[in-house]
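Blinded run. Sample ID left blank on purpose so nobody reads anything into the name before looking at the predicted structure. Input follows.
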Amino acid sequence: MMKLLTILFLICLLTSCLRLDSNLFNPEEKISSYQLDGYKGKRECPDLPEKFNIPDSLVHVFQVESDNSGDKARIWCIYLGDKSRISQDTVLLYCHGNKNHMDNYWNRAKLLANVNGKNRYGVLMMDYRGFGLSDGTPTEDNMYADVEACIQWLKNNGIKDGNLMVYGYSLGSAPAIKLAGKINVMPFSKLILEAPYGNAQTMVEDAAKLSLPSSYFTNVKVNNADEIKKVSVQFCWFHGANDEFLSLPVHGQKVFDNYKGPYKEAHIVQSAIHNNLPSVMGYEEYLSVLGKFIRR
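Blinded prediction complete.
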């Protein structure tokens, strides 16, 4: 019986019905415009107090062109802050998770815009290709190109070396780590990760409970646990102790342990699952921890 089940599983697998690409890249909801504070769908940090709201004059929605070796797409971005001050400001580049679009993560971006005081730092986030209103198809290489396009936009607007930090949440940990290790793109001053995953192979094994090559399930080759070894900037890691999607010991802990840079700190939040860490930690405490790390 077990042999038969295994054969049926492999048949299904090889016909691609169990591929995990849709879990790694899951834009899910189709939209016609960004609603931000007016969004009525399910979002991260849904109970964020109004005191964290950002003035409309400091919210800028725009597009940039992303070019992955000739494969071009228009991707949508939101900048929170005074664009005329980018040359003087420190900016947090926020790389969101694998579901939905920027409306879903809007409250998270607002939180980051309140670190160390309201609008102390600029915050830039984007929808990868295929997410939200962004053109194209989501792939690993396209995602890297999309984030690099946002960095180029910051360069075009005058950001100085040493004034860019990157925050990668879940899927967004992949471009955050990858680009933090590529000093030819632009040197980051800090790396912040929340619920990063170790590598695609481990995610496959978690999902399938079989030690099969990840190529059977997905074209994604991400290996954060290996890429983090190339990172030489200060590193702050958050992870929910009860993360049901990317488990703490299998994913985040491996990334943290493999970091070989000058400074790292870990914040494991008891009772938090994959997508509620800031609220379980407490928004004020979360911002306090982030602020101390950024200022050090």
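Unblinding after everyone has recorded impressions. Residues 49-295 form a domain with the Rossmann fold fold (CATH 3.40.50.1820).
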